[in-house]
Amino acid sequence: MGAWLTDTIHSMGYFGVVLLTFLENVFPPIPSELIMPLAGYLAAEGRMTVWGAIAAGTLGSLLGALLLYGVGDRIGEDRLKDFADRHGRWLTFSRGDIDRASRWFQRRGGWAVFVCRLIPGIRSLISIPAGIHHMPLAAFLAWSALGTALWTGLLVGVGYVLGSNFERVGEFIDPVTKIVLAAVLVYYLWRVATHKGARRD
User: Fold this and answer.
1) In degrees rounded to 5, what are phi and psi of residue 4?
2) Distance CA 55, CA 41 (A)
3) Hey, where are the domains in the chain?
4) Burial class (CB in 10 A: 0-12, 13-18, 19+), 119
5) What is the pTM of this model?
6) What is the signed CA dihedral for 139, 140, 141, 147, rounded to 10 degrees?
7) Distance between CA 127 and CA 72 in Å, rounded?
8) What SS3 class is residue 116?
9) pLDDT exceeds 90 at position 142
10) What is the DSSP annotation of 20-58?
Protein backbone atom coordinates (compact mmCIF):
# COMPACT_ATOMS: atom_id res chain seq x y z
CA MET A 1 0.00 0.00 0.00
CA GLY A 2 2.87 2.35 0.77
CA ALA A 3 4.07 2.29 -2.85
CA TRP A 4 0.56 3.08 -4.12
CA LEU A 5 0.22 6.03 -1.73
CA THR A 6 3.63 7.33 -2.75
CA ASP A 7 2.87 7.02 -6.48
CA THR A 8 -0.50 8.74 -6.08
CA ILE A 9 0.92 11.76 -4.27
CA HIS A 10 3.96 11.98 -6.56
CA SER A 11 1.79 11.95 -9.68
CA MET A 12 -1.21 13.98 -8.47
CA GLY A 13 0.32 16.40 -5.97
CA TYR A 14 -2.11 18.31 -3.78
CA PHE A 15 -5.13 16.65 -5.42
CA GLY A 16 -3.62 13.27 -4.56
CA VAL A 17 -3.39 14.32 -0.91
CA VAL A 18 -7.04 15.45 -0.96
CA LEU A 19 -8.13 12.20 -2.60
CA LEU A 20 -6.18 9.93 -0.26
CA THR A 21 -7.23 11.71 2.93
CA PHE A 22 -10.85 11.58 1.74
CA LEU A 23 -10.53 7.83 1.19
CA GLU A 24 -8.71 7.44 4.52
CA ASN A 25 -11.78 8.79 6.32
CA VAL A 26 -14.18 6.51 4.45
CA PHE A 27 -11.88 3.46 4.48
CA PRO A 28 -9.83 3.74 7.72
CA PRO A 29 -7.27 1.04 6.74
CA ILE A 30 -5.70 3.67 4.46
CA PRO A 31 -3.25 5.28 6.92
CA SER A 32 -3.01 9.05 7.32
CA GLU A 33 0.13 8.22 9.30
CA LEU A 34 1.85 7.62 5.94
CA ILE A 35 -0.05 10.03 3.69
CA MET A 36 0.70 13.25 5.55
CA PRO A 37 4.34 12.58 6.51
CA LEU A 38 4.97 11.86 2.83
CA ALA A 39 3.44 15.23 1.98
CA GLY A 40 5.69 16.79 4.62
CA TYR A 41 8.72 15.13 3.03
CA LEU A 42 7.74 16.51 -0.37
CA ALA A 43 7.40 19.94 1.22
CA ALA A 44 10.94 19.62 2.58
CA GLU A 45 12.05 18.75 -0.97
CA GLY A 46 10.36 21.88 -2.31
CA ARG A 47 7.75 19.95 -4.29
CA MET A 48 4.91 21.18 -2.07
CA THR A 49 4.50 23.87 0.54
CA VAL A 50 3.91 23.00 4.17
CA TRP A 51 0.73 25.05 4.35
CA GLY A 52 -0.51 23.65 1.05
CA ALA A 53 0.01 20.09 2.29
CA ILE A 54 -1.83 20.83 5.55
CA ALA A 55 -4.68 22.51 3.68
CA ALA A 56 -5.02 19.62 1.21
CA GLY A 57 -4.97 17.01 3.97
CA THR A 58 -7.51 18.93 6.03
CA LEU A 59 -9.81 19.45 3.04
CA GLY A 60 -9.78 15.77 2.09
CA SER A 61 -10.47 14.70 5.67
CA LEU A 62 -13.36 17.15 5.98
CA LEU A 63 -14.92 15.87 2.75
CA GLY A 64 -14.75 12.32 4.10
CA ALA A 65 -16.16 13.45 7.44
CA LEU A 66 -19.05 15.17 5.66
CA LEU A 67 -19.92 11.96 3.84
CA LEU A 68 -20.06 9.98 7.10
CA TYR A 69 -21.98 12.80 8.80
CA GLY A 70 -24.55 12.55 6.00
CA VAL A 71 -24.84 8.79 6.54
CA GLY A 72 -25.51 9.33 10.25
CA ASP A 73 -27.99 12.10 9.53
CA ARG A 74 -29.86 9.90 7.07
CA ILE A 75 -30.07 6.96 9.48
CA GLY A 76 -31.48 9.16 12.22
CA GLU A 77 -32.03 8.40 15.89
CA ASP A 78 -35.45 6.76 15.50
CA ARG A 79 -34.20 4.20 12.97
CA LEU A 80 -31.20 3.50 15.16
CA LYS A 81 -33.48 2.88 18.15
CA ASP A 82 -35.64 0.48 16.14
CA PHE A 83 -32.51 -1.34 15.00
CA ALA A 84 -31.28 -1.50 18.59
CA ASP A 85 -34.56 -3.10 19.67
CA ARG A 86 -33.99 -5.90 17.15
CA HIS A 87 -30.23 -6.33 17.40
CA GLY A 88 -29.36 -4.79 20.75
CA ARG A 89 -27.10 -7.55 21.98
CA TRP A 90 -24.72 -7.36 19.03
CA LEU A 91 -24.84 -3.56 18.95
CA THR A 92 -24.22 -3.65 22.74
CA PHE A 93 -26.62 -0.80 23.37
CA SER A 94 -30.35 -0.34 23.86
CA ARG A 95 -32.92 2.36 23.18
CA GLY A 96 -32.23 3.86 26.62
CA ASP A 97 -28.49 3.86 25.96
CA ILE A 98 -29.11 5.85 22.78
CA ASP A 99 -31.13 8.43 24.70
CA ARG A 100 -28.33 8.85 27.24
CA ALA A 101 -25.69 9.03 24.52
CA SER A 102 -27.74 11.67 22.74
CA ARG A 103 -27.92 13.84 25.87
CA TRP A 104 -24.16 13.40 26.44
CA PHE A 105 -23.35 14.28 22.84
CA GLN A 106 -25.52 17.39 22.97
CA ARG A 107 -23.55 18.59 25.99
CA ARG A 108 -20.06 17.67 24.76
CA GLY A 109 -20.50 17.16 21.02
CA GLY A 110 -17.97 19.78 19.95
CA TRP A 111 -15.21 18.57 22.26
CA ALA A 112 -16.01 14.95 21.42
CA VAL A 113 -15.56 15.64 17.71
CA PHE A 114 -12.35 17.62 18.31
CA VAL A 115 -10.72 15.02 20.57
CA CYS A 116 -11.76 12.02 18.47
CA ARG A 117 -10.28 13.61 15.34
CA LEU A 118 -6.90 13.27 17.09
CA ILE A 119 -7.25 9.55 17.93
CA PRO A 120 -6.10 6.98 15.35
CA GLY A 121 -8.62 4.27 14.63
CA ILE A 122 -11.75 6.20 15.64
CA ARG A 123 -11.08 9.64 14.18
CA SER A 124 -13.35 8.93 11.20
CA LEU A 125 -16.17 7.23 13.09
CA ILE A 126 -17.10 10.24 15.26
CA SER A 127 -18.76 11.80 12.20
CA ILE A 128 -21.55 9.20 12.26
CA PRO A 129 -22.92 9.96 15.77
CA ALA A 130 -22.54 13.66 15.00
CA GLY A 131 -24.89 13.15 12.05
CA ILE A 132 -27.26 10.88 13.98
CA HIS A 133 -27.66 13.49 16.71
CA HIS A 134 -28.02 16.28 14.15
CA MET A 135 -25.11 18.32 15.41
CA PRO A 136 -25.28 21.71 13.65
CA LEU A 137 -23.29 21.38 10.45
CA ALA A 138 -21.32 24.60 10.96
CA ALA A 139 -20.25 23.50 14.44
CA PHE A 140 -19.38 20.01 13.20
CA LEU A 141 -17.20 21.42 10.43
CA ALA A 142 -15.52 23.91 12.76
CA TRP A 143 -14.61 21.33 15.43
CA SER A 144 -13.62 18.78 12.78
CA ALA A 145 -11.43 21.33 11.02
CA LEU A 146 -9.66 22.24 14.27
CA GLY A 147 -8.90 18.64 15.21
CA THR A 148 -8.04 17.61 11.66
CA ALA A 149 -5.74 20.57 11.01
CA LEU A 150 -3.88 19.90 14.26
CA TRP A 151 -3.41 16.19 13.47
CA THR A 152 -2.53 16.88 9.84
CA GLY A 153 -0.12 19.64 10.76
CA LEU A 154 1.62 17.40 13.28
CA LEU A 155 2.15 14.63 10.72
CA VAL A 156 3.27 17.03 8.00
CA GLY A 157 5.73 18.60 10.41
CA VAL A 158 7.16 15.24 11.42
CA GLY A 159 7.52 14.23 7.77
CA TYR A 160 9.22 17.53 7.02
CA VAL A 161 11.75 16.98 9.82
CA LEU A 162 12.36 13.29 9.08
CA GLY A 163 12.78 13.86 5.35
CA SER A 164 13.25 10.62 3.41
CA ASN A 165 12.78 8.65 6.65
CA PHE A 166 9.13 9.74 6.83
CA GLU A 167 7.92 6.09 6.82
CA ARG A 168 9.28 5.77 10.36
CA VAL A 169 6.22 7.73 11.53
CA GLY A 170 4.03 4.74 10.72
CA GLU A 171 6.36 2.45 12.65
CA PHE A 172 5.72 4.43 15.84
CA ILE A 173 2.03 5.23 15.40
CA ASP A 174 0.90 1.86 14.02
CA PRO A 175 1.42 -0.01 17.36
CA VAL A 176 -0.58 2.68 19.17
CA THR A 177 -3.40 2.30 16.65
CA LYS A 178 -3.42 -1.47 17.14
CA ILE A 179 -3.55 -1.09 20.93
CA VAL A 180 -6.49 1.30 20.68
CA LEU A 181 -8.37 -1.03 18.33
CA ALA A 182 -7.63 -4.05 20.54
CA ALA A 183 -8.98 -2.19 23.58
CA VAL A 184 -12.13 -1.30 21.64
CA LEU A 185 -12.57 -4.97 20.63
CA VAL A 186 -12.16 -6.21 24.21
CA TYR A 187 -14.66 -3.61 25.44
CA TYR A 188 -17.11 -4.66 22.71
CA LEU A 189 -16.88 -8.34 23.67
CA TRP A 190 -17.40 -7.45 27.32
CA ARG A 191 -20.51 -5.42 26.40
CA VAL A 192 -21.92 -8.31 24.36
CA ALA A 193 -21.36 -10.72 27.24
CA THR A 194 -23.00 -8.44 29.83
CA HIS A 195 -25.82 -7.05 27.67
CA LYS A 196 -29.19 -7.29 29.45
CA GLY A 197 -31.48 -6.62 26.53
CA ALA A 198 -33.38 -3.64 25.25
CA ARG A 199 -34.76 -1.15 27.72
CA ARG A 200 -37.51 1.25 26.80
CA ASP A 201 -37.04 4.40 28.87
Assistant:
1) -65, -45
2) 15
3) 2-194
4) middle
5) 0.70
6) 110
7) 7
8) helix
9) yes
10) HHHHHHHSTTS-HHHHHHHHHHHHHTTSS-HHHHHHHHH
